[in-house]
Amino acid sequence: MQLFETMRLEKGKFPRLPYHTKRIKQSAERLNFKFDEANWNQLIEMLINEHPTGAYRIKILLDQDGLLDYVVAALSDKNKFTAKLLLLPDNINKPELINKTTVRKHLSHNHQTDLVLLYDSNEKLLEFDIGNLMIKEDGRYYTPIYNQDFLRGCMRQSLIDDGKLSQKNYDLNDFKDKVLRNQIQVFLINSLREVAEVEIYL
Description:
25% of the residues lie in helices and 34% in strands. It has helices at residues 17-31, 37-50, 94-98, 154-161, 172-180, and strands spanning 3-10, 55-62, 68-74, 80-87, 115-119, 125-128, 131-137, 140-143, 166-167, 184-190, 194-201. The strands form 2 sheets. It has a 6-stranded mixed β-barrel with strand order 4-5-6-7-10-11. Strand 7 and strand 8 (140-143) form a beta hairpin. The longest helix is centred in the first third of the chain and has 15 residues, at 17-31. The protein is globular.
C-alpha cells in the first residue's frame, strides 16, 4: 500500500499545495509511514522547475519507508461526466476510506458511467470515486458533512475555507427526487479538474 496525492500543475504552480502537503503528512502519521517534508518540498520544487509552462497531472506516491515516486501526465480537459449511484459496502476498513491510498477496491466499478456516486447503508450521499460531491441548490453550493465516512478532498476543503461551499447532508431518495425535478445541479470537485458538471443516471 502507498499513499498518494494527485495534483494539478499549471504554469509552474501547484494550486492548493498546502492542502495536499497537510493531507499526506496527516495520513502518514495515522498509518505509520515515514514522511520527510524536506524531501517532499524538494520534489515539488524539481517538478515546478522541470514544467514551468503548460498544464499537467502530477501523481506523487509515498511508500511506508518514506520513498517518494511520481508520475507526470497530460491534464485532461474533460469537464462533464456521467455517474450512477452505488452502495458503499459496510466492510470497508476506515483507513482505506479516509486516507488516499492505493488500496481502493471500494471505488471499483464497471464504468457503464464515467463515475460512481457512493452512498452508505443509511442512504447518506458520500463522494464520487475520483472526488467529492458538490450540489447547487437555490443558488448555494453544498457538500456532505464529513463524519469519517469519505475522503476529504483538497478542493472541497479550500472551497469551504473560502466560504464558497457549505456542508449539508443529502438523503438518497430526496436527492433522486430533486435530480428528476431538475431542482439541483450536481458537480464533481477535485484538485485536478477543480469543478466539473455531472449528469446522474438514475
